[in-house]
Amino acid sequence: MKKAVKFSIIFFVVILFTTSIFAQPQRRMMGGKGLINRSPSRILRILETKQKELNITDNQLEKIRDLSFSLEEKMIQMRSNISLQRLEVRKLLQDKKNLDYERIRAVLSKASKFRQDIFIERLKTRKEIGNILTPEQREAIKAMRKERLRGRREGGLFQRRDRLQ
Predict the structure, then answer these.
(1) DSSP secondary structure, 38-99, as one string
(2) Which pTM value belongs to this model?
(3) Domain ranges in the chain?
(4) Is the pLDDT assigned to residue 38 strictly greater than 70?
(5) What is the distance between the alpha carbons of residues 32 and 36, in angstroms, rounded to a whole number?
């Protein structure tokens, strides 16, 4: 009887600790993604909220807004094309006895080209936005980003230890 009680107590303690470990929020690191992987509307929102801080004129913001919307339209079209290519691959994979590997390769290659085009368009838009901004504004954005990343690092594990003491 004593062994059963000891076992059940140990079991519940282990369950209690493992549950609390997995309940911790997961932190994701951005790791140098910069503006490339951000959606155009997010870049625009950031610049709109920091317009006064960065001394961005209404004219600059309007040009950036136009670039952002045109990029978003292109991305919607390219993502649609990628989805169509995925559907085509699924159709080709239905006939398992007579798989046409060359056709599958061609469709996958086409989808890959659309993903590359999305990446290139984002790079071009980023460069155009950089050309619209003055060098001082670009430096201010870099400084803000570095400060934000530094705040994330300092707000991580070390800050939690300080709160516990």
Answers:
(1) S-HHHHHHHHHHTHHHHT--HHHHHHHHHHHHHHHHHHHHHHHHHHHHHHHHHHHHH-STT-
(2) 0.61
(3) 38-133
(4) no
(5) 10
